[in-house]
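lol so apparently i was supposed to do this last week
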Amino acid sequence: MPVLVMKFGGTSVATLDRIRRAAKRVGVEVAKGYDVIVIVSAMSGETNKLVGLVDETSPLYDAREYDAVVSSGENVTAGLMALTLQEMDVPARSWQGWQVPVRTTSAHAAARIEEIPTDNIMAKFGEGMRVAVVAGFQGISPEGRVTTLGRGGSDTTAVAFAAAFEAERCDIYTDVDGVYTTDPRVCEKARKLDKIAFEEMLELASLGAKVLQTRSVELAMRYKVRLRVLSSFEEQSDEAGTLVCDEEEIMESNVVAGVAYSRDEAKMTLVSVADRPGIAAAIFGPLAEAGVNVDMIVQNISEEGRTDMTFSCPTNQVKRAEKAMEEAKAKGDINFHGIIADENVAKVSVVGIGMRSHTGVAAKMFKVLSEDGVNIKVITTSEIKISVLIDRKYMELAVQALHDAFELEKAS
Ligand code: ADP
Ligand code: ASP
Ligand code: MG
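anyway here it is w/ aspartic acid bound
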């Protein structure tokens, strides 16, 4: 029988009622003749609660134990979903990551899926089981420890299962009815897209649009998974939601496809480091080893052989970054006069494949921000995106102003 993957995010399984509603959707697909793999997230708020407990216990935690704790939310939902399906007379059972097993790297808290053997689950489908409910977000390392895939990782679990089982489609059920030109919670003029190109979705996701985890888009692109985002709250037709697909499948598109933001950014400056060959390696090597995700980097013009080095990273990695820098200084690998951490910044980005062939997008973006009195602290660009770091208090304003300026409420 053909296989379908259906993923339900945290809000879609937030209560027993919602789990029942999701289970009914699964029942509809089973009745159509699909064997279904259901990937579930933890109930809404659970993962944040677990992360909070870990942080409170141990601020610079051992990531293996972090994973042991935060992976548990998904186990609860998987069992509850299987029970709900059984109550509806749908043959179902739950699977935790290690039972499948979802084999991952040992990069705890940010593990990558390496292999998903299909034989265990396929054998059960052969015996009459119709739904495999799999706990998303988790796997097992070569050392036999439980791993997690990074926040939002259940999306990646879903796409990886769709690829491994050659599923007909991977449907991501969430609390919005598709991918929008920007977060509809921040900009009420945001417009739902019927289709979006993999590359644009990849950029939007990596720049903060958390509707899909970046890695899930990467995998879908690589393995040609038909990936759809749709609402778990409304009745859905087969055409509903947003299809993430190849650029060629999209007839018309705007120069700018969307605006993304990332709230939890911090800007860190190492004041007065020696400007010499190897200094960047001496700074960013230890940061990488400490697991700090450095994003934007700026080096100031140097004066008398010394310069300031500024970079951005997620707010919750500031302490880790400071520790890594102080240790490198104590070892004599680098020298600086101080570290300034600004934890009140946000990143706003515009994304669009059309930027490859259109000039003037950056100029327009900077002009719009200046007209609203928003000061730009750092800028980075790539072929299809422009990102700026600004004061967090202007983030919503900037998103709305850019959405207006690029007329994203209108289809091209
Ligand atoms: P889930 O729990 O189902 O995984 P998430 O909260 O991770 O859901 O992702 C869905 C949320 O993503 C939406 O509620 C919305 O606020 C946010 N979001 C951000 N950018 C976008 C966008 N461009 N389109 C749709 N939703 C977006
Ligand atoms: N529960 C995890 C999180 O909140 C994984 C997911 O929902 O995708 O990040
Ligand atoms: Mg999510």
